[in-house]
Write a structure and sequence with these properties.
Shape of chain A: flat
Shape of chain B: elongated
Order of helices and strands of chain B: EEEHEEEHHHEHEHEEHHEEEEEEEEEEE
Largest sheet of chain B: 6 strands, mixed
Number of helices of chain A: 14
CATH class of the largest domain in chain B: Alpha Beta
Number of strands of chain B: 21
CATH architecture of one domain in chain A: Orthogonal Bundle
Strand content of chain B: 35-45%
Strand content of chain A: under 5%
Mean pLDDT of chain B: 92
Number of helices of chain B: 8
Largest interface: A-B, 20 and 27 residues
CATH topology of one domain in chain A: MetI-like fold
Number of strands of chain A: 0
Strand order of the largest sheet of chain B: 6-7-8-3-9-10
CATH superfamily of the largest domain in chain B: P-loop containing nucleotide triphosphate hydrolases
Low-confidence stretches of chain B: none
Oligomer: heterodimer
Structural class of chain A: mainly alpha
CATH architecture of the largest domain in chain B: 3-Layer(aba) Sandwich
Order of helices and strands of chain A: HHHHHHHHHHHHHH
Distance between the termini of chain A: 25 Å
Helix content of chain A: over 70%
Largest sheet of chain A: none
Chain lengths: 302, 354
């Protein structure tokens, strides 16, 4: 093999071209994510810009020459915010678990079954993807609400007083599972399709039952898709607004709804921004776990 | 160690028959090579033995016991897959130990068995590596060790050398044969490589279009190909179509006497003479005449392409024989086969030019 030393001038040109190519997304990220994040952190720690009347309009504004955590202390000591945070975590974790479990079961069914029914399921699970969240939310409300479609049908069979999940945290979970399933099954399905049939047959050959094959052979191969689905569902549900606003309870509320209420109805932009910073930090931790998990998995399977 | 019997094994996919009425009896410790071109049904047959495909008809018996209804995990067989099929998230040790763990063996027993298998397959010190850290040959040995630790009664090898480079193929071929003989395990080895089959097998089953064309020892397969397909598939062969006239087959200008014991059906006046290049010898008094059009150097010998009028025939000569292009030559045939309707009808052996 002949090794050719790079020519410096060409190398510079290449480097410059590369920088120019990456600069648009980098600048976009700088202006849309990094700059607002820095601004939000400064504002929520008492660094209030003098030229921003919206930021100054907070009715209980904390303004300080040096960074302070007073806004966060007040926020996190409020029983209402504590309840909001607790519900947000509960709904998020329940949604992630259910999306992963239901999505994985559906993906496994489609991967390992043959015949007409799996083909139908393969089409059906995609349907929620084509229905806007607002429409789907109202559809779920109409179906599950007290005296709605489901209860009317059940009443015909003498089943009455079934509790409705609508306007409860479970209603939000239901909505999040509905909207999250297509993405989850698509991703997990493609992950399962990537597991070579020979690996499964080799496990069968040494005497593994279907359950053992799933647990010891198949699932370790789809850790990355599982992590992607888990992380993205977590971040999506954590910051969601439409489903919890339409299907969730009035109080406590999920952080996305609470943030909007604080920012608009309560005229409290500073705690709203503090909530946004907290949400961003939690999402960052989830993102970091995802990056750590995928890089670890890829190192093992490289 | 066990005997394997396939009885009229048949598999169809829609209207196409992948395997048709294959019957084979394999003795204890014997190595059978299923040989044939792509799509001939050899892998389908192997996968039916392993339980990955259910036959439409026929039976599979191991030591007289039918296993045809057992799922793969309950069959006393173990398979080495074409692309090794090592589990990428497990180390070499875990790959080999997995089957033993499923059998609830003690940790010490598993450790000892895996260590023995690593020694047998020449892999000591590699147990902590992951499959992606292994070379092709090492991965192949792990796959073999994984199969052998379970002490299967039948070992199934699905083109295990096809992903290795030429040098490694030769070495692994010998190693597999060596291990198979040491363990004395009844083995079915699928390959499309005739040289591999001839070198490794006790018997070869040549398959074509789902049918078993011939089941015989490597020597018999080479010297007495039962069908025209086997004759054309194994080794180099001159196939000369001709017509039957007065006790001979006339192939253009070349006439071949039909042997006394030939059993022609008489259904046709056409026959094919099959003669290997090494059975044609340059002979000043030979009955056949032609002109050398090409000399191909194959390293250990040369192949002359001789224009014999209406036929081009290949004649093998020693490496040091210099026969330039354009040379007029006479040659004779020491041994040739007569095929009618694709079936061997007789073999002529000449004593004159031995």
């Amino acid at each position: 093999m002949q090794v050719v030393a790079p020519v410096p001038s060409r190398s510079w040109r290449h480097a410059l071209t590369g920088l120019l190519l990456v600069s648009p997304p980098f600048l976009l990220m700088l202006f849309l994510i990094v700059a607002p994040t820095v601004q939000a952190i400064l504002y929520s720690t008492g660094q209030v810009p003098t030229d921003n009347i919206v930021f100054q309009s907070d009715i209980d504004l904390v303004s300080s020459a040096t960074p302070t955590l007073v806004v966060y202390q007040r926020l996190l000591s409020s029983p209402y915010v504590q309840a909001d945070l607790a519900m947000t975590f509960q709904v998020t974790i329940a949604s992630v678990v259910l999306v992963l479990v239901v999505g994985y079961i559906l993906a496994l069914y489609v991967r390992f079954s043959t015949g007409l029914l799996p083909s139908i399921v393969r089409v059906l699970y995609l349907i929620p993807m084509f229905i806007p969240v607002v429409i789907a939310s109202y559809g779920l409300i109409e179906f599950f609400v007290a005296n709605g479609f489901l209860q009317t049908i059940l009443a015909q069979f003498g089943i009455q007083n079934m509790p409705s999940p609508i306007y409860t945290p479970w209603g939000i979970v239901l909505g999040q599972v509905w909207t999250g399933i297509p993405f989850a099954v698509l991703l997990l399905g493609s992950g399962l399709d990537g597991v070579p049939q020979e690996l499964i047959e080799a496990a069968q050959d040494v005497g593994a039952s279907f359950g053992r094959i799933l647990w010891r052979i198949v699932t370790p191969q789809v850790v990355t898709p599982l992590l992607i689905v888990g992380t993205f569902t977590f971040i999506g549900v954590l910051g969601s607004y439409t489903v919890p606003y339409l299907i969730g309870p009035n109080a406590p509320q999920m952080l996305g709804v609470a943030m909007t209420a604080y920012n608009g109805s309560y005229q409290r932009p500073q705690p709203a921004v503090a909530m946004a910073v907290l949400t961003f930090l939690i999402a960052t931790v989830a993102g970091a776990i995802y990056v750590w998990g995928t890089s670890r998995t890829e190192r093992t399977a490289a | 160690m066990a005997g394997l019997t396939l009885v009229d094994l048949t598999k169809r996919y829609g209207g196409a028959t992948a395997v048709s009425n294959v019957s084979i009896t394999l003795n204890d410790g014997e190595l059978l090579s299923l040989l044939g071109p792509s799509g001939c049904g050899k892998t389908t047959t192997l996968r039916m033995i392993g339980g990955f495909i259910t036959p439409d008809e026929g039976d599979i018996l191991i030591d007289g016991q039918s296993i045809v209804r057992l799922p793969p995990e309950r069959r006393p067989t173990a398979m080495v897959f074409q692309r090794y099929a090592l589990w990428p998230h497990m180390t070499v040790y875990d790959n080999i130990a997995f089957g033993l763990q499923l059998r609830n063996k003690s940790r010490e027993e598993i450790r000892k068995t895996v260590d023995d298998a690593l020694v047998l397959t020449g892999l000591p010190g590699k147990e902590k590596r992951y499959p992606h850290q292994l070379s092709g040959g090492e991965a192949q040995r792990v796959a073999l060790a994984r199969a052998l630790v379970l002490e299967p009664r039948i070992l199934l090898l699905d083109e295990p050398l096809s992903n290795l480079d030429a040098q490694l193929r030769l070495r692994m071929r010998d190693e597999i044969r060596n291990i198979q003989q040491r363990v004395n395990i009844t083995t079915v080895f699928v390959t499309h490589d005739q040289e591999e089959a001839l070198a490794i097998a006790d018997r070869i089953g040549v398959m074509n279009g789902g049918h078993l064309e011939q089941l015989a020892s490597p020597d018999e397969i080479y010297t007495q190909p039962a069908t025209l397909f086997v004759a054309s598939f194994i080794g180099n062969m001159n196939l000369l179509p001709g017509s039957i006239t007065d006790g001979a087959v006339q192939c253009g200008l070349l006439g071949f006497a039909i042997p006394q014991d030939a059993r022609l059906s008489g259904s046709t006046r056409e026959a094919i003479i099959a003669v290997r290049p090494e059975e044609l010898v340059l002979d000043g008094h030979g009955p056949y005449h032609g002109q050398v059009t090409q000399s191909i150097n194959l390293g250990d010998h040369k192949l002359l392409v001789v224009d014999a009028g209406e036929q081009l025939v290949r004649v093998a000569v020693a490496r040091e024989d210099a026969v330039p292009r354009g040379t007029a030559v006479n040659f004779s045939a020491r041994r040739y086969h007569v095929y009618e309707d694709g079936v061997l009808r007789g073999t002529a052996v000449s004593n004159d030019t031995a």
